[in-house]
Amino acid sequence: MTKSCLHCKQEKELTEYYQFYDKWAGRKFYSSRCRPCHLLYKHTNPNTKRNRKAEKLKLRYGLEHSQWEEIRKEQNYSCMICGIEETALGRKLDVDHCHATGVVRGVLCNPCNTVLGHARDKIEVLEAAVEYLKQNAKGYKS
Q: Are 56 and 63 contacting, i.e. CB atoms less than 8 angstroms apart?
């Protein structure tokens, strides 16, 4: 099976294209540019990473890129839970949102955001975890 590249207009085999899985749409698709053209586009277009981030923010959280930047700035580019800064983290902070309502709460580092997600946003689970750590800080008691 073949496909025409959006950039070079050549007809190429599907193996010449990157394949992506869109978990939100629940399907696989092939890139519109062949691998060489895709790499060229990626390296010559400085806005591609920002554009992809903007698309994800809009699709997942209904946020504009500028709103996300404003939230990060208001929080001094630091996680609201542990306080680690993006510079120390080596990456941008994640958007934290309520899974029940979809409301954005702020930005967190990935570990803190994951803790909330695994606790299913339940305060009682997190309080129980704190109590567990307090009682078992020195290890298993016999």
A: no
Phi and psi for 22 in degrees, rounded to 5? -95, 105
pTM above 0.85, yes or no: no
Shared domain for 73 and 35, answered yes or no, is no
Binning the chain into helix, strand and coil, the percentages to the nearest 5 are 45, 20, 35
**Could you tell me if 75 and 135 lie in one domain?**
yes
Answer whether residue 93 shows pLDDT above 70.
Answer: yes
Q: What CA–CA distance (Å, rounded) separates 73 from 79?
A: 11
As for how many domains the chain has, the answer is: 2
pLDDT confidence band for 49 (50 / 70 / 90): confident
- Give dist(CA 71, CA 108) in Å, integer: 11
List, for residues 18-28, the tens digit of each pLDDT value: 998 877 778 88
Are 12 and 79 in the same domain? Answer: no
Domain limits for position 56: 50-142
